[in-house]
Design brief:
The chain is built from 12 helices and 13 strands. The chain is elongated. Helices cover about 50% and strands about 20% of the residues. The protein folds into 3 domains: about 160 residues, 2-Layer Sandwich (Beta-Lactamase), CATH 3.30.450.40; about 60 residues; about 160 residues, Heat Shock Protein 90 (2-Layer Sandwich), CATH 3.30.565. It binds adenosine-5'-triphosphate and magnesium ion.
């Protein structure tokens, strides 16, 4: 059997090359995949997993999962991350079965599932920003002290590059949100103006048609034409109503709302469609105490809009592609303000959204559907905004879409 030949250039060259290849990348997932392929060039190891801290939820999410390992997370409250934070050093599991047994059952099962041998903490300032798991070396040898000091150098550089990418991501995110808020506020004013202009003549048209229908009611052909007119006028009226609720929304009628209950109530409304289309609804990490102050009816409308979009997006999935809507409820804390919020995520396995459309989906009248008005998400955006929350989208064309809502949860 031919052994993979591992080329070991001198350490200085290796490090500076490694550094150069990572420092210019600001896209996190690209950074991680580059980093992993570099490590594989240097070390005989196949499975490398990177977990990074999601600051708002305090959970460490696996960044490069294979299909069956999606959603694998570690939490900051658990033993493994704690151990890394206290000890601030790597851990070779086969040499420390006692430490392995100290971890929680869930952590032990993740470690087994990922075939982990070496755990390394990624540190930034004084907190653990992530961790890297490596499996046993494929040539069967143990990790030596020399291996570990080289890996430590590489991993520390990677932690630094990842932190840079995170900061960059945060900054562009902030700018994008500011730009979107501005744009939607301007569109809102325009929309309100247009809706008002249309509403008055529309009322006149509607009553005239009703008046005329009395005269033509006995003639079936004319009566049918009148009916069509009425249907069209109703359609315009619905659009104008939608526009107005986007632009000049009704006051919020705040009360204590249990978000979990409200999600279940909304699901009841679409139960028949879900089962007809064979869509499975799954729940993931459901947080406890999911009560917030909100306008129940308006929030229900938001959930409904989002779920209907998900159903529509999965409608044309080929028979072998699963149709799943995953709903999760997590708690989070803003790292700057310490404000607490609920994060509600709706993830579908539908056709996804093309990159060029991503920034437009909250615009009023943006639709890719023949029968759509393009107001569902615009209205939802308005509702969430008035609750001082945030609504975001993540999507991959051909794979699926996640809509993420953050709502403040005050004590
Ligand atoms: N879950 C999703 N998957 C794929 N595309 C989506 C999803 N949600 C929204 N979109 C895209 O965003 C567009 C705007 O959505 P929005 O709900 O505002 O309007 P619509 O669904 O087209 O019409 P309406 O909701 O008024 O019936 C959609 O036409 C679609 O292209
Ligand atoms: Mg819609």
């Amino acid at each position: 059997m031919k052994r993979k030949k591992i080329i070991q250039p001198d350490l200085g060259t290796l490090l500076s090359e490694f550094n150069r290849s990572l420092m210019l990348i600001v896209d996190k997932s690209l950074l991680i995949s580059n980093f992993i392929s570099k490590i594989k060039q240097i070390f005989p190891v196949e499975l490398i997993y990177v977990f990074l801290l999601d600051e708002s939820t305090g959970k460490y999410k696996l960044q490069n999962p294979e299909k069956d390992k999606q959603g694998v997370i570690l939490t900051g409250k658990n033993k493994l991350i704690n151990w890394l934070a206290v000890n601030e050093k790597h851990l070779v599991l086969s040499q420390h079965p006692d430490i392995f047994n100290y971890f929680s059952e869930e952590e032990q099962s993740i470690l087994k599932q990922l075939r982990t041998e070496l755990i390394y903490p990624l540190k930034v300032m004084n907190h653990i920003s992530g961790t890297i798991f490596l499996e046993k070396k494929t040539d069967g040898s143990e990790y030596t002290e020399q291996d570990i000091s080289l890996l430590s150098l590489l991993f520390d550089q990677a932690a630094f590059a990842l932190e840079n990418a995170s900061l960059y991501e945060k900054q562009t995110d902030r700018l994008r949100k500011m730009y979107r808020t501005d744009r939607l506020a301007t569109l809102g004013e325009l929309a309100a103006g247009a809706a008002h202009e249309i509403r008055n003549p529309l009322t006149a048209i509607r009553s005239t048609i009703q008046y005329l229908s009395k005269d033509f009611g006995h003639d079936p052909a004319k009566s049918e034409m009148i009916n069509e007119l009425i249907i069209e006028v109703e359609r315009i009226n619905k659009i104008v109503q939608g526009l107005l609720s986007f632009a000049r929304p009704s006051e919020l009628n705040m009360s204590e709302v249990d978000v979990e209950q409200l999600i279940n109530q909304t699901l009841l409304l679409i139960q028949t469609t879900l089962s007809k289309q064979q869509i499975e609804v799954e729940f993931e990490y459901f947080a406890k105490e999911t009560i917030i102050r909100a306008d129940m009816e308006q929030l229900k409308q938001v959930f409904l809009n989002i779920m209907l979009n998900a159903i529509e997006a999965m409608g044309n999935n080929s028979p072998e592609r699963p149709r799943t809507l995953i709903i999760s409820l997590e708690k989070g804390t803003d790292i700057d303000t310490q404000n607490r919020f609920l994060i509600i995520t709706f993830e579908d396995s539908g056709k996804g959204i093309e990159d060029k459309d991503l920034e437009n989906i909250f615009n009023p009248f943006f639709t890719t559907k023949e029968e759509g008005t393009g107001l569902g998400l615009a209205i939802s955006y308005g509702v969430i905004n008035r609750h001082e929350g945030e609504i975001e989208v993540k999507s991959q064309s051909g794979k699926g879409t996640s809509i993420i809502i953050k709502l403040p949860q005050r004590k």
